[in-house]
Amino acid sequence: MRDAVIVEAVRTPIGKGKATGALHGVHPVDLLAHSLREVVGRSGIDPVLIDDVIGGVVTQVGEQSVNITRRAALAAGYPESVPATTVDRQCGSSQQAIHFAAQGVISGAYDVVVAAGLESMSRVPMGASVVGATDIGGVAFNERYPEGLVPQGISAELIASRWQIGRTAMDEFSLASHEKAAAATKNGSFASELVPLEGLSADEGIRLGSTVETLGALRPAFHSPDHAARFPEIGWNITAANASQINDGSAAVLIMTSEKAAQLGLTPLARLHSFAVAGDDPLLMLTAVIPATRKVLQRSGLQLSDIDLFEVNEAFAAVVLAWAADTGADLGRVNVNGGAIALGHPLGASGARLATTLVHALRERGARFGLQTMCEAGGLANAMILEAL
């Protein structure tokens, strides 16, 4: 039976997604090409062997439009014979790219694939793809949801309210994310996964020195009179400090069968064990990580207690805390090197970034199983389990 293994996984340092950020001057094509070039260079394989390149990008407009993955693969020096495509499952786009790549390898459609992700939020702002659109729902969708959906920040507020997660708990979680990310940077835990660019060798958004008291003074980020009237249960506790950052970055993962890895003299880092995708209430939007986690565990035949490390994307602290409360997962095994609140969340790159961090963390700690899940706009989530080799 065919399998799918990861033989290399790399990512750029994550830059602040603003004009003053260290990666703002890097064109999105070049930003993705950097990871594509490095993942092949580290493996030593001839890129002509690559059957496909699958890239995840969320805001596919402007410099990130027209199948940017193809242009990035060519910019990386891949032969013109190597095809490429770009997928969008919102924040889980590059995790979905990994799923598609692994599923293609297992099915026999591919032998060697690169799955990758990119977002340059400083150059292509979030939401740019819907600028000018007056109605993205259409008649039937709007009839099904006549009151309309809400921005993700409001969804996070609703989650915090439903799971009774207070401001202090979210701020404490956020501070811990920065502390873990700073420690991982200092002790070299990211060294094997990072491919520095000129001007940036470490993640730019990590901050130390804050306290629960200083974070508690921040104003709510998403309060509005209209939303307050519609949702009187909201406590208005989501701030810039307990939400993910806006960022630039890319990541890439090289996937093949274990048989092909042996033929090429490569040592796999991890096996792609199990996959799932789930949907949930699109108003709450960010809760599908809970059914996705249950679904992937059921498919894998594993129990929650079998999982050594978790990577749960920190879109908002409330999402991870609600997920942990509902699943019973030990937060001490979650995002052990920090998450998106500290490292950043370059949308389309984050799925591949989490996988890269997870595979290297499993190896560094001598752990066996890792579970990764990401909330996604529209009430979606991907989940997968990796088995270290």
From TrEMBL:
Keyword Acyltransferase: yes
Transmembrane segments: none
InterPro entries: Thiolase, Thiolase-like, Thiolase_C, Thiolase_CS, Thiolase_N
Pfam families associated with the record: Thiolase_C, Thiolase_N
Residue span, Thiolase C-terminal domain: 266-387
Superkingdom in the source lineage: Bacteria
GO MF, any single term: acetyl-CoA C-acyltransferase activity
Gene that encodes the chain: fadA_6
UniProt protein name: 3-ketoacyl-CoA thiolase
Family, similarity comment: Belongs to the thiolase-like superfamily. Thiolase family.
Residues of the Thiolase N-terminal domain: 5-258
Source taxonomy: Bacteria, Bacillati, Actinomycetota, Actinomycetes, Mycobacteriales
Active site residues of this protein: 91 (acyl-thioester intermediate), 345 (proton acceptor), 375 (proton acceptor)
Organism: Nocardia macrotermitis
Keywords: Acyltransferase, Transferase
Record-linked PANTHER family: ACETYL-COA C-ACYLTRANSFERASE (PTHR43365:SF1), BLR7806 PROTEIN (PTHR43365)
EC number from the UniProt entry: 2.3.1.16
CDD domains in the cross-refs: thiolase (cd00751)
